[in-house]
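So, can you check?
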Amino acid sequence: MPWGYNRTGHAASLRLTGGAGGVRRCAADAAQSRVGSRVALYLAFRVAIFLARVIPLRVSYAIARGVGVLTYYAWPGGRRRCVQNMTRVTQGDQRAARRLARRSFGNYVVYLVDFFRFFGTDEAEVDRRVVVPDGLWDQLRGVRQGSGIVIMTMHFGNWDLGAAILASRGFPVSAVADVFQNSRLNRMVIRSREHLGMKVIPVGRTGPGIMRALRNDDVVALLVDIPQPDGGVQVEFFGSTISVPDGPARLALRAGASVVAATLPRRARWGDQVTADIAPVAFEPTGNQDRDVQALTQQVFHHLEGQVRRHPEQWYIFRNLWLADRPPERQAV
């Protein structure tokens, strides 16, 4: 062990096992290990993208659903939380909740297959895969009033295709993207979005980036079904209280943006097409910011509740969303 600790737990001294050269070798080995891990992750992504392209769709979906069911049984914590969430949807029917949870696990791995297929997807492929209701584009153009649109969505169906189809229809879209520590992987993910016409907002700079996008009259899509152990805003969902991010509503109100609740459910079990389930949210601010944030978020979740009811097995929620279902120490926070 190269490091010694005093009774307070702080580093007290460096035992020079092998001298300064040994320390340098340890640091070099650690750096080499990190580089190796990043290369392995990048190559794993490349292999997954290749396999998703060459394996027939039904075969890849069948494998994905099998992996999802295995994960359902192998991950007791995720299974328990997903069943608890689905029990809210089924109004207490445990048997139906377990069935929906198993399907949710399977459908999430199917989504991952589609995520890897997304790399290299072109505009024509996006148009084929997204079936849009008549009049949708006119409806969205009518909603867009010069201060952008905030689309609030969930981990549901194939949400990646939503931003892609909007960009292909001429809407300026800014997409929030996770930042990977692996710079090559990060560039690959960003390019996969940019080549379809999307602007990418790094997840660490979302607030200022989203405000700039809305002032430019862009469309911004944000995920809102994220449990908030501390802060956030409380709303009713399926008859009980949840705590979710307040940022999307605050940013929309600050920018004066229009708000739309939307999901993209899969149309058929073995097909890769989705349809747009969209509901513009009419809201008139009162001037009381906190009250407006809560009321706007509540309206959004009212629409999302209806969308989940239609396709609950396509909602991927593996963390406790409802306050009453959280462990006692987290409820007290």
